[in-house]
Structure formats: structure tokens, C-alpha cells
Amino acid sequence: MALKYTRPRGTQDVLPQDSWKWQYIEDVIRGTARGYGYGEMRLPTFESTDLFARGVGDGTDIVAKEMYTFEDKGGRSITLRPEGTAGVARAVLENGLLASSPLPLKSYYIQSCFRYEKAQKGRLREFHQFGIECFGTHEPVSDVETMLVARDVFKKLGVNDSITLEINSIGCPKCRPAYNQKLREYFESQREELCPTCKQRLEKNPMRILDCKEEKCQKIAAGAPVMLDYLCEDCTTHFEEVKNLLAEADAAYVINPRIVRGLDYYTNTVFEFIAEGVGTQGTVCAGGRYNGLIEQFGGQPTPAVGYGMGLERLLMLMEEQGKLPEEKQGPLLYAVGQSEAGRKAARLLVAGLRNAGFPAEYDLANRSVKAQMKAAGRLNAAYTVVLGDDEVSSGKAVLKNMETREESEIVLAEGASGFFSTVYGPNAASVGIIGTSGGYIAAQAKGLSKAEKLETGGNNG
Ligand code: ATP
Ligand code: MG
């Protein structure tokens, strides 16, 4: 069969057998961001095109070639967000958050972004970013805090050891013009060797030549003067403090004077987290300080720092290194119905488990007992119970542990709690596994796998 419709190039379908990986990563991110006091922002997927033209910068690849821009039916120019910072800065101003919230204002997002790029491994047209933005302080401790959030996420996901934090400082409007002048002189002397784009950058923004991906430009850039040698006293002190605080937090870093952000509103710290072995798509996270952006958007001068982390690249790294948890957990129970009364009993028992926050299933397709057992196996259910007229009339049924094949009797009238005391032991209720929604998570948090019993009488708290 020839497919009538296929997904657009550079996009992905995340299917139920894989979505748990995303949920896992997102749970870790949300938990970490919450722990550091960052609040989530959920913003529009599209914004007016000007916002990105100004907020990302006309000279950038993003604005020059990568934006999904279209005219809506009202004749407005609209763009699907290619990154997160511009939208967050817009929302901060539009909602008056700098006046109404305690400062610094700490926000994060997890969202899809869109860029018309040559699709390849680790480079998509619709991809996902976790980003954080912190507004209202110039203190180095805030730069470092944002980096620590990323570092903690990498640690919790088991990939921190293969990711290097690279940092640099690109100075401020006080010290950068003199450096730009030196840089211009340097590149001017080798103008003929530069790629056509860099020839243009030479006039407007020589710093961006340092970021060019062309090999010949990179070679020339390797000998260029570096901003670190031209920082003013304030910027030197700021950078020193960033380094001290990273050391204090035991966060390893290297200084890479080639990391730049080519726009005027970027100042001071810039950084990237780079993964080994992911090839040219090794930058998992990139960010920096952008003290000039809010003012450029018409607000009061407001220092800010933030970054974007590419979640496809992060997941790729975890998969390559086998860092994802073992398997998706199946339902704790599959209750098989053998007769009409048995199916009703199955629904009742399953409802009790679901109420307590434990995944459980019954048949939705009016299948035979054999087919239901097969379904339970395919779903990787931890326990099964077969309920027919005999079980309903005797009020007792046999619970089967699908891993050990061990069988035990449960009393149907006790419902879910009868099931729980059989599975987790008689004191399951007293340690809070039963009776709260999210009980399954509570059980896992206590280190219990789906088939493990709590010790009775012992100290399990
Ligand atoms: P690159 O140099 O790889 O093109 P970039 O400088 O364009 O990256 P940023 O705009 O700094 O990237 O975005 C932050 C992060 O988002 C990147 O470090 C990367 O992890 C991720 N990212 C950017 N573009 C894509 C894409 N097209 N597909 C997947 N992830 C992306
Ligand atoms: Mg790019």
C-alpha cells in the first residue's frame, strides 16, 4: 500500500512505546527546575515575526534562513518560534512580571521549536528545548545557578560524565568595541580567504566569524585575538567569580575563548555543554547572559541569563550510552474476565487499583480467556487474576505473579486492599503506599519493584 500521507521531513512521531522516555526526561527536568525555584511558562507556539527578527537578530542563521514564516489570514507576518528566549522576554514585559513578581524572576519552559534546516541526525525541523531564563540580576551566582540546573539534569540522567561545560566571557558594551576593532583589523588582513558570509560579517559583526562552520574560516579564526584579553575590570571580575562559583559547586568546566554570541545584547558569560561522540551535533545546551535584550524590547534595562537545551540530542546521548531505565513498567494487574459476572468483578477490582494510583487493566475487546492472558503477557502485566462465576460465588480468586509464577489467594470482597496486602505485604497501608493517588510512584520511590513485598513488621519507613 502506498501511503497517502507521510510526516513532513525533519519531524518525528513519538509513539506510546517510546513516549515514556520523553516523560522520564521531562519529569527529571521539571523536578530539578522546581527544586531550584524556576516556574514554568507555557507560551504561544507562534509570535509576530518582528519579535524574532529583533530578538534573535537579523544577522543570525536562524533569522536569515531557518524561520517558518507565513502570512495569516489577517495579513500579519507570523513565525513559528525557532527558540524560546524572545518569547519569554516578550511575555515578561507584556505581563508586567518585572514589576509584579519577586526578583530575580526565574522561569523555565519545555517546548517545541521550529527551524527550516537540513534535516539529519540530531538536527530536526521540529525539535524540543528545555530552557531557563533568569531576569533581574547581574550577579555571577545567577549565571552559575542556571548552569547547575543543567548539570543536575545531566547527572540525574546519568550522562554528566560525557558532557563538558565550556565557558567564555564576551565582555560588555564598554570593552567590546575596542576588541571588535582589533578583530576587524585581524580579519581584514586575511579578507580574501574568508567565506562570502564572513566577508559581510566583517563589517557588521566580526565576532560572528569566530562561530563560522566553514573550515577555512575556522582556521583563520584560530589565530584571532580573544575577548578574554580585552575584558574591562568589571567583566574580568564577573568572569573570575563565575569560575570561582563553579569550582565551589564542584562543577568541572573548560574555558573556550571561541564561544561567542554575535548579538549586541549578549554580555559577559556565554557557555555550552558539549557531549562527546554525538558528532557535529554535540552541543546539547547553549546559553549566556543577555543584559541588553529587555531594554531592546522597550523595557527598563534588566540583566538576564539563560539557555536552551536540545532534548532530542539529550535523548540520543542517553540511548547511545544505555542510560535509559530498563523497561517500561506494565500494568500491575491484568484482571481477566471469564463470564459476565467475572468481567464485572474484574472491572471493580481494577477500578480500586486505579483509584489508588496503580496501573491496571481489563479486557475491552470481549476476548476469550486465552486471548486475555496473551494480552496480559504482551502488556507485561506483573499479576493476573482470572475471574469467572466460580470465583464470584466463592468470593476468592487466584492471583498469579507472572514473573515467578507463584500463586496466592485473594478475597474479592477486600477489593484493592486485599490485593495490596498480598502483593506488598500486610503493612503496605501503614507506609503510605495505599490510599494515596500516585501509589505506584510511592511504591517505586520506596524501592519496590512491581513484584516485591514489603517486609512485615520491620522498619520500612
Ligand atoms: P547548532 O550550532 O547545532 O546549529 P544552534 O547554535 O543553532 O546549534 P541554539 O540556537 O543555541 O543552537 O539552540 C540551543 C540548543 O538547541 C542546541 O544546542 C541544540 O541542542 C538544540 N538545537 C538547535 N537546533 C536544533 C535542531 N534543528 N534540531 C535539534 N536540536 C536543535
Ligand atoms: Mg543552528
Overview of the structural elements:
This protein has 461 residues and is α+β, with helices and mostly antiparallel strands. It folds into 2 domains: 16-175 and 231-320, Bira Bifunctional Protein, Domain 2 (BirA Bifunctional Protein, domain 2); 333-445, Anticodon-binding domain (Rossmann fold), CATH 3.40.50. Helix content is 38%, strand content 19%. The chain is built from 17 helices and 16 strands. It has helices at 16-35, 49-55, 61-66, 85-94, 97-100, 140-156, 176-188, 196-204, 215-222, 233-248, 293-296, 311-320, 340-355, 369-378, 389-394, 415-424, 439-445, and strands spanning 39-40, 46-48, 69-71, 77-80, 105-114, 126-135, 163-169, 254-255, 267-275, 283-289, 304-310, 333-337, 360-362, 383-387, 396-401, 407-411. The strands form 3 sheets. The chain has an 8-stranded mixed sheet. The longest helix has 20 residues, at 16-35. The protein is elongated. The N and C termini lie far apart (58 Å). The model is unreliable at 456-461 (pLDDT under 50).
| Associated small molecules | adenosine-5'-triphosphate, magnesium ion
**In the CATH hierarchy, what is the class of the largest domain?**
Alpha Beta
Structural shape: elongated
Name of the CATH homologous superfamily of the largest domain: Bira Bifunctional Protein, Domain 2
